[in-house]
């Protein structure tokens, strides 16, 4: 067992006495930061519908084809801004050739996001250790929204931004699961420990299965590593326990987004979300 880390004093957080740090950043470390720098690009029916339905998402611009506007009206989704009616090719030119926009393109302000100090102490959190593929992260966000995850923690570096491909892959999940951006993952895990979280690192070589790992009564943080590399050594050492998924078949590894879905299902069977 590691000895308890002494509480941090004001000297370790100079902004506690002097206010937000100077510099180009718009939000100081005590404020709610943004999940993305600058406007966010959202496209595709589900992503745009969820954004339009989220009162916390400030809409800047909406481009839509006539057919897409008809679908929004049929679904009783308010556009909230005057839409610019365009042909599909006008949206095609704004995106990469393989982007499936379904006639909808939205620009919006980034969402305010919570901090580790504001998430519930008995919550369920995903921690991503340098997972950089926006398709994978988007799929994880979508799954997290389905399992009522309280937050996804990832580093500001070595992670994709909450826009474009990630947002499309999340299929609206970004409106329901906040991405908490931190500078240092190990320090973030220590902050979760201080809030009573059990930090479980998912590892194919874990000594016990996730089903057989006691979850306790506090919060649970599932820590996932990048495909191929897995959890970094410092991340493994900072976790409380390592656990593997129970896979009786010949293949013992899964795409990280699939692993996240199975792990969340295992945890939710033992710790269902609290009401409200």
TrEMBL record:
Please indicate which superkingdom the organism of origin belongs to.
Bacteria
The protein, known as: 23S rRNA (Guanosine(2251)-2'-O)-methyltransferase RlmB
Q: Which PANTHER family match?
A: 23S RRNA (GUANOSINE-2'-O-)-METHYLTRANSFERASE RLMB
GO cellular-component term (any): cytosol
Biased region (Basic and acidic residues) positions are: 1-19
- Which GO MF terms are attached to this record? RNA binding; RNA methyltransferase activity
Using the UniProt annotation, give all residue ranges assigned to the region (Disordered). Answer: 1-35
Supply the Pfam families for this chain. SpoU_methylase, SpoU_sub_bind
Question: In its UniProt record, which GO terms are filed under biological process?
Answer: methylation; RNA processing
Its EC number is 2.1.1.185
The protein's UniProt keywords, in alphabetical order, are: Methyltransferase, Transferase
Ranges for domain RNA 2-O ribose methyltransferase substrate binding: 41-114
Question: Organism source for this protein?
Answer: Methylopila capsulata
């Amino acid at each position: 067992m590691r000895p308890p880390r002494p509480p941090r004093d004001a000297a370790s957080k100079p902004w506690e006495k002097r206010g937000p740090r100077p510099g180009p950043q718009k939000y100081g470390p005590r404020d709610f930061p943004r999940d993305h720098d600058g406007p966010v690009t959202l496209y595709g029916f589900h992503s745009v519908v969820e954004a339009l339905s989220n009162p916390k998402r400030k809409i800047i611009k909406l481009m839509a084809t006539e057919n897409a506007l008809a679908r929004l009206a049929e679904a009783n989704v308010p556009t909230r801004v005057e839409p610019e009616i365009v042909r599909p090719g006008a949206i095609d030119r704004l995106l990469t050739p393989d982007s499936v926009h379904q006639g909808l393109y939205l620009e919006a302000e980034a969402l305010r996001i919570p901090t580790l100090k504001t998430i519930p102490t008995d919550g369920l959190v995903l921690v991503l250790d340098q997972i950089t593929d926006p398709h994978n992260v988007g799929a994880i966000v979508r799954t997290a929204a389905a399992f009522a995850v309280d937050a996804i923690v990832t580093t500001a570096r070595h992670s994709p931004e909450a826009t474009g491909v990630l947002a499309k892959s999340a299929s609206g999940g970004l409106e329901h699961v906040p991405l908490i951006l931190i500078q240092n993952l190990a320090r973030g895990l220590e902050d979760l420990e201080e809030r009573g979280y059990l930090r479980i690192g998912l590892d194919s070589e874990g000594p016990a299965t996730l089903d057989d790992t006691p979850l306790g009564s506090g919060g649970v943080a599932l820590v996932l590593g990048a495909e191929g590399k897995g959890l970094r050594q410092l991340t493994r050492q900072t976790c409380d326990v390592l656990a593997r998924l129970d896979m009786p078949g010949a293949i013992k590894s899964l795409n990280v987004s699939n692993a996240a879905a199975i792990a969340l299902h295992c945890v939710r069977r033992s710790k269902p979300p609290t009401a409200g």
